[in-house]
């Protein structure tokens, strides 16, 4: 059996649904949990860093950058993934990305990521 988190208008709990159940019971909302990843890439071409966040996995986003979906990464690639953090909420990931792009954040990355 797999655990599925669901809620209805009266209560919220973890339900045990059989594997063959495609949908939660009628009248029940299924909650989907998204994770947001803050990631740091390092250019193999010139050692510059790129900081971003995504709802995709960091590996999927790295492949997007290698395909040239962003002008900066198209000009500075190829890249290696050097650091990731995962957050449950988009706003948390956005704030962390903003910090890592700041002067103090760049200093933190210098001290906490491989060179």
Describe it:
The protein is an alpha+beta fold and 115 residues long. The chain has 2 domains: 1-33, no CATH class; 36-112, GIY-YIG endonuclease (3-Layer(aba) Sandwich). The protein has helices at 58-66, 71-76, 90-101, 103-112; strands spanning 2-7, 12-17, 29-30, 36-43, 49-54, 79-87. The protein has a 3-stranded antiparallel beta sheet with strand order 2-1-3, with no helix packed on it. The chain has a 3-stranded antiparallel beta sheet with strand order 5-4-6. A hairpin with a 4-residue loop joins strand 1 (2-7) and strand 2. Helix 3 packs across helix 4 (103-112). The chain is globular. The chain starts with a strand and ends with a helix.
Task: Please give a handful of descriptors for the protein shown.
globular, GIY-YIG endonuclease, 6 strands, 32% helix, 115 residues, alpha+beta, disordered N terminus, 3-stranded antiparallel sheet
Draw up the topology in text:
Blueprint: E1 2-7, E2 12-17, E3 29-30, E4 36-43, E5 49-54, H1 58-66, H2 71-76, E6 79-87, H3 90-101, H4 103-112
Antiparallel strand pairs: 1-2, 1-3, 4-5, 4-6
Helix pairs in contact: 3-4
Oligomer: single chain
* Strand-pairing-aware structural class: alpha+beta
Annotated CATH topology of the largest domain: GIY-YIG endonuclease
Measure the end-to-end span: 45 Å
Please sum up the structure shown.
The chain has 4 helices and 6 strands; from the N terminus they run E-E-E-E-E-H-H-E-H-H. It is α+β, with helices and mostly antiparallel strands and 115 residues long.
């Amino acid at each position: 059996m797999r655990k599925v988190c669901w809620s209805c208008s009266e209560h919220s709990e973890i339900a045990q649904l059989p594997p063959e159940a495609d949908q939660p019971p009628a009248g029940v909302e299924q909650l989907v949990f998204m994770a947001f990843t803050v990631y740091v890439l390092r250019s193999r071409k010139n050692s510059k860093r790129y900081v971003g966040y995504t709802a995709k996995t960091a590996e999927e986003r790295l492949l997007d950058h290698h395909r040239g979906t962003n002008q900066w990464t198209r000009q500075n690639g190829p890249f290696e993934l050097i650091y990731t953090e995962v957050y449950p909420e988009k706003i948390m990931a956005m704030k962390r990305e903003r910090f890592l792009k700041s002067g103090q954040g760049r200093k933190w990355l210098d001290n906490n990521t491989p060179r």
